[in-house]
Design goal:
This protein has about 150 residues and is an alpha/beta fold. The chain is built from 6 helices and 4 strands, in the order E-H-E-H-H-E-H-E-H-H. It has one domain (about 1-150): Response regulator (Rossmann fold, 3-Layer(aba) Sandwich). Helix 1 (about 15-30) crosses helix 6. It starts with a strand and ends with a helix.
């Protein structure tokens, strides 16, 4: 089983979108038995809050069910538990490494790296462009699913 934790700053926009998109892709492929998917924040700013309405609206527009979720913060124990801890941008990666005291097992990745890109997934909290975030998240999740199912 692949245990994946998607991570962004607040856990209400990008990481919850990635959690919902990846869950949807896995269900469409009938691979639920192979995956555990969740999301978290590097900050405490949005703890307990539900996904941002922009994320919810974009997912609904795209026909992707929204996974029920309340924002939580990543912990060092998450590093031990999950196989893949996937950040949305360079700042997330830096904060994830701080929380985990480094990445000795090589579990921390940036989402778009699975699609062969070094770009950050732009934060729609600042850009307001949830459609662009959805495109990037979907590109990263599709590439991640492809790589993991080829490993299985």
């Amino acid at each position: 089983m692949f245990k994946i934790l998607f991570i962004c700053h607040g856990n209400i926009c990008r990481s919850t979108m990635a959690e919902s998109v990846m869950t949807h892709l896995v269900k469409k492929a009938h691979l639920e038995h192979m995956f555990e998917i969740n999301s978290a924040a590097t900050s405490r700013e949005e703890i307990g809050n539900s996904p941002h309405y922009g994320t919810v609206n974009e997912l609904r527009y795209r026909g992707v069910p929204v996974v029920p979720h309340r924002a939580v913060q990543m912990t060092k124990a998450d590093y031990e538990y999950y196989d893949y801890l996937i950040g949305m941008d360079t700042a997330n990666i830096r904060n994830m490494n701080r929380i985990a005291d480094g990445d000795p097992e090589g579990k921390i990745y940036k989402l778009l790296s699975f699609a062969g890109e070094s770009f950050d997934v732009a934060d729609p909290w600042y850009t307001g462009d949830f459609a662009a975030t959805y495109r990037d998240v979907t590109k990263g999740c599709e590439a991640l699913l492809k790589q993991l199912t080829e490993k299985a």
